Amino acid sequence: MRIPKFMPWLNKKIVDPLLQIIRRGAEPKQLAFSVALGITLGVFPIFGVTVFLCGMAIALLGSRCHAPSVMLANFISAPIELSLVVPFLRLGEVISGGSHFPLTSDALKKVLTGQASREVLLSILHALLGWLVASPFILAILYVILLPCFKLLVHKFSPLPLPSSPKKQLHSLTEVRLKVRDV
Fold first, then answer.
1. Potential cystine with 123: which of 101, 102, 107, 108 (Cβ 3.0-4.6 Å)?
2. Is 139 exposed, middle or buried (0-12, 13-18, 19+ CB in 10 A)?
3. Which residues are CB-contacts of 89 (< 8 A; sequence separation ≥ 6)?
4. How do the pLDDT tens digits run along the chain, 183 residues long?
């Protein structure tokens, strides 16, 4: 049986980084949120802006998200981004009641020659509106789907047992101090 040529690339670029993230002890909830956020921002309908958006989200959220997971998910979502531009455009047109932007070769010719600048700007705004309306749902659905997956992966691949909560860690630390002081 032959291994497809893209498998080494897939392992090197996606599977290995994901396993490294999991083995470093990240929490499943944080990973699920970070990956859902990275994909949601990664399907933003203007190509090339997603890395900037993810960087802004990482800076704003700080320790509540896992930066490498957000960026890996953004990288993975690039092909999905291209496939969702038209659905976001159509959703934005429906929501705003705007005119239907024709996706024909004649329309493409007008766009390339600069004759359809107003229509192109409106279509970009419609696509942005479609993404703005859909993004909370995308984020929530991805989080719900990814959380059990990351719980399983962290349980399977994490070398150390994860602490159940920071409060329990603090409690055990004070208990150790009390015991040391008693001696």
1. 101
2. middle
3. 45, 101, 123, 126, 127, 130
4. 666 776 777 777 777 777 777 777 778 999 999 999 999 999 999 888 999 999 999 999 998 998 999 998 999 898 899 899 899 999 999 999 988 887 777 776 776 777 767 777 888 899 999 999 999 999 999 999 999 998 998 888 776 554 554 544 445 444 444 444 544
pTM: 0.75
CB 108 within 8 A of CB 69: no
DSSP, residue by residue, 119-153: HHHHHHHHHHHHHHHHHHHHHHHHHHHHHHHHHHH
- Amino acid present at 162: L
Q: Where are the domains of the chain?
A: 6-156
